[in-house]
Amino acid sequence: AQTVTQSQPEMSVQEAETVTLSCTYDTSESNYYLFWYKQPPSRQMILVIRQEAYKQQNATENRFSVNFQKAAKSFSLKISDSQLGDTAMYFCAFMKIQGAQKLVFGQGTRLTINP
Amino acid sequence: NAGVTQTPKFRILKIGQSMTLQCAQDMNHNYMYWYRQDPGMGLKLIYYSVGAGITDKGEVPNGYNVSRSTTEDFPLRLELAAPSQTSVYFCASSLNTAAIEAFFGQGTRLTVV
């Protein structure tokens, strides 16, 4: 079974700073997807970024980028030039490529951006 | 285009009562999922469906039942509600294995007292 661990329950940074959220996972699969989801106070689950394990290049979406270390089973999220609207819970998630698209989530990191 | 719609948004149940959480999607997605999110935790999969008439258990299926009679609808039934089922429930859908993004509903906050 796959497990996802987020070791930082809470983080807080000042607006415009850069922040990195950590995620590690355990799997015996060789091909899979990794995701970061954002959950603001509205409860909506919003996909921030995804990474295919077979791609060596780290994914980037505007101010969001990942550092994917497959051998170390590490998948961190970097938010550059943080904004007040980035305040939310962030969940790391894993999904096998084969079969139904069942997401396995970490416990989440509560990120607060202070003005 | 409404996406994934869950009803109700909030509900309080008494121990032993039953209820059905409704989920509907209008994107013609094959795959649908039910997750629960306990306070301070990530989401855990309850049940999922890969198409009409096909359902399967996820990580935490005990105390729940599902059905998938149409592509659009995937209701979650709670029988004999217990305080341990107090949680936020999310329904999600995705097109197929080639389309890896899942779309989530707004969630249903359920409290069992």
Radius of gyration of chain B: 13 Å
Largest interface: A-B, 25 and 24 residues
| Helical residues, percent of chain B | under 10%
Distance between the termini of chain B: 36 Å
Unreliable spans of chain B: none
The largest sheet of chain A, given as strand count, sense and whether it forms a barrel, is:
6 strands, mixed
Shape annotation of chain B: globular
What does this structure look like?
The complex is a heterodimer of chains A (115) and B (113). By secondary structure, chain A is mainly beta. Chain A has strands at residues 3-5, 10-14, 19-21, 24-26, 32-39, 46-52, 60-61, 64-69, 74-79, 88-96, 104-105, 109-114. In chain A, strands 2, 5, 6, 10, 11 and 12 form a six-stranded mixed beta sheet that branches. In chain A, strands 3-9-8-7 form a four-stranded antiparallel beta sheet, with no helix packed on it. In chain A, strands 1-4 form a two-stranded antiparallel ribbon. In chain A, strand 8 and strand 9 form a beta hairpin. Chain A is globular and about 45 Å long. Chain B is an all-beta fold and 113 residues long. Chain B has strands spanning 4-7, 10-13, 19-25, 31-37, 43-51, 54-57, 64-66, 76-78, 87-94, 103-104, 108-112. In chain B, the strands form two sheets. In chain B, strands 2, 4, 5, 6, 9, 10 and 11 form a seven-stranded mixed beta sheet that branches. Chain B has a four-stranded antiparallel beta sheet with strand order 1-3-8-7, with no helix packed on it.
